[in-house]
Specification:
Blueprint: H1 3-45, E1 47-50, E2 65-69, E3 80-85, E4 89-100, E5 104-108, E6 113-116, E7 119-120, E8 140-141, E9 146-150, E10 168-169, E11 173-182
Antiparallel strand pairs: 1-2, 2-11, 3-4, 3-11, 4-9, 5-6, 5-8, 6-7, 9-10
Length: 193
């Protein structure tokens, strides 16, 4: 082999090594940017929250992981929300919004039916009819800036029927549940969409 061929082979090997290093650097750079993007998304726009307990069965189960967001959020009837009520429990709670400010809530515990503004709620998501009264009495009007919440597992849920929780001030809402991401067999929208 000639000296020029050896030099050319060495140059080609060095160029190939630089090219491989450049590709590795680009991959690392892409991974770092993706990681930063995910951190920013989950710090400012979304949160990952675990379900603790059975109060939302059959919609959500103990251990489910949910993506929650409060970006431009205004509570609506039927939304599943995460909120804090530190006087009751130090961890966040998950419940369904049954009524919003100004609406009236009435519950017929004999028949297990819930009425909002005199209309019977269609609730295909509940585990069983509402028989557990807790402290709830009469017809209640949801105050301004508050929501009335209940768990889907009505007879095993502490919610707005319990005076320790009561109506939830909207400022205590962490966000709306957007979807379940774990376990994989529960992945998707909890709203049946």
């Amino acid at each position: 082999m000639k000296k020029t061929d050896i030099r050319n082979n060495k140059k080609a090997a060095a160029a190939g090594e630089k090219s491989t290093r450049g590709e590795i650097y680009e991959w690392i750079q892409c991974l770092v940017f993706a990681l930063i993007f995910c951190v920013v998304m989950f710090v400012f726009l979304f949160r990952l929250v675990d379900v603790v307990g059975d109060s939302m069965n059959p919609t959500l189960e103990d251990g489910d992981k949910m993506v929650v967001s409060d970006l431009f959020y205004k509570p609506k009837q039927g939304d599943i929300i995460i909120f804090r009520k530190d006087e009751y429990k130090s961890r966040a709670l998950v419940k369904r919004v049954i009524a919003t400010e100004g609406q009236t809530v009435e519950i017929d515990f004999t028949k297990g039916r819930v009425y909002v503004d005199g209309e019977l709620l269609d609730e295909p998501y509940i585990a069983e009819p509402t028989k557990n009264q807790i402290d709830f009495t009469g017809t209640q009007i949801v105050p301004e800036g508050c929501v009335f919440v209940m768990g889907d597992n009505r007879n095993e849920s502490a919610d707005s029927r319990d005076s320790r929780i009561g109506m939830i001030d909207e400022r205590l809402i962490i966000g709306k549940v957007l979807l379940t991401v774990y376990p994989l067999n529960h992945m998707g929208s909890p709203y049946g969409d």
